[in-house]
Amino acid sequence: DRGWQFAPGFHYSRTLVGGNSLPSQLITGDWRIAPLRQIELTGAFFTGRNAGPIGGLRQGIVQTSPGQYRAVATTGGWTQLMLRPFDRLRFHLIAGEQDDRRSDLNAGNINRNFSWAVNGMYQLGPNVVVGLEAQQIRTTYVQSAPPTRVANRYDLALAYIF
Predict the structure, then answer these.
(1) Are 117 and 91 in contact (CB under 8 A)?
(2) Total Cβ atoms within 10 A of residue 111
C-alpha cells in the first residue's frame, strides 16, 4: 500500500500512409507515489512524434500537400490523486493533456486536449460500487471559431465486481 515506483519506456514504429513511411517515436514514463495508505499519486507522460498508434489524438500524422505527409510532434500526460478517508470510500482528482505542436498541424486539427475530473466511489458491499463523477474537456482547434470548445460530463455509475 505504500512506496513509490517509476517506469521509463519508449515506443517506436512506422506508419504507412500514401506510399510514405513515417516514424512514431515516443519516450514515456509512469509513476506511483503512495506515502500513506490513504494517499496515492499516479500518472504518466509522453513526448515525441506521431502518438496516434498508441491512442493519442487522431492526427498523429498530417498531409502537407498531395502525397506528402509529416509526423506531428506532441507532449502530454495525466496525473491522478487518490484520497481514501476510509476503506470503502475513495475520491480521485484527475487531470490530463495532449498538446500537439501547432506548427505541425493543418487548419481544423486539434492542437490541445485538456481534461480534468473529480469523482467519488463508495463500496456498498463486497462486490458493489457506486460512483459519481464530474469532468470537463477543453479542446483547442487550429484556425477554428471558436478556437476552444468545452464539454462538461456528469456520470453516475453502479458496478458489480466479479
Answers:
(1) no
(2) 21
pLDDT, one tens digit per residue, over 18-34 is 888 999 999 999 999 99
- Per the CB < 8 A criterion, the answer to whether 68 and 20 are in contact is yes
Q: pLDDT per residue over 142-153, tens digit each?
A: 998 889 999 999
For residues 34, 30, 89, 3, the Cα torsion angle rounded to the nearest 10 degrees is -20
Tens-digit pLDDT profile for residues 33-62? 999 999 999 999 999 999 887 777 778 899
Backbone angles phi, psi at 14, to 5 degrees: -125, 140
Total-model pTM = 0.85
